[in-house]
Sequence to fold (256 residues):
Amino acid sequence: MISRKKLIAGNWKMNKTSADAATLVGDLVSAIGKQNDVDVVVCPPFTSLESAGKVLEGSTVKLGAQNMHPEASGAFTGEISAPMLRALFATYVILGHSERRSYFAETDAFINKKVHAALKNQLRPILCVGETLAERESGSTLKVVQTQTELGLEGVSKEQAASLVIAYEPVWAIGTGKVATTEQAQEVHAFIRDLLTKLYTAPVAQKVRILYGGSMKPANAPELLAQKDIDGGLIGGASLEARSFVELVNAAIAVK
Ligand code: 13P
Fold:
């Protein structure tokens, strides 16, 4: 079996000015900027990408964005394109986060267009999927995750699929302090891996990193990261301080 390098990604959401971002990234680079045992990505807001990117230069920490528009340019007031992100040396982009789906009415079809635009521009998509509390309680978790994954990846080739990252983020666990149990998370991660096997063959599915997101903290990370199909974390709250984020990276190094 291929062993996948763990990936710890920080989704800063709408936090940190460009000056604050440079400070936080500076602290991260000092603590973990040389290690290569796990992949580390920070995803600041658009306005902080440039300052964060400058401080990351020469370190092993990678830069990601939190969203983008599928078109390369044009009359889309307030939007940012994949080539713009590439020009700032971003190499990852979070797509289809539940906050985008719920507050900004993003559909699977629109997210799918972004996935294609990201791949075309050598940005690795971190495609987020996950059920709401009502969906979990009604027993439709796997169905929801299947639909979001299949529609989000429609038309993505086997060759492209190997560079994908999927993030399983149960909506009820995001920012709530309610983390999924290791069994709940592993069940969905294994389900996603099976689905990828059906869509793209086993060797491709074995290469795709599937991250867990939702109240991941240094205290609960070791157990989650030890699960067979949990290949890292997409971290919100705990990525906003160097100490907790570094602890999460170290937790991933410990189980690699
Ligand atoms: P929290 O870690 O704050 O729960 O956020 C998770 C998340 O939404 C990451 O994308």
Observations:
- Strands lie at 7-11, 39-43, 62-65, 92-95, 124-129, 165-168, 209-213, 232-235.
- The chain has a mean pLDDT of 97.
- The longest strand covers residues 124-129.
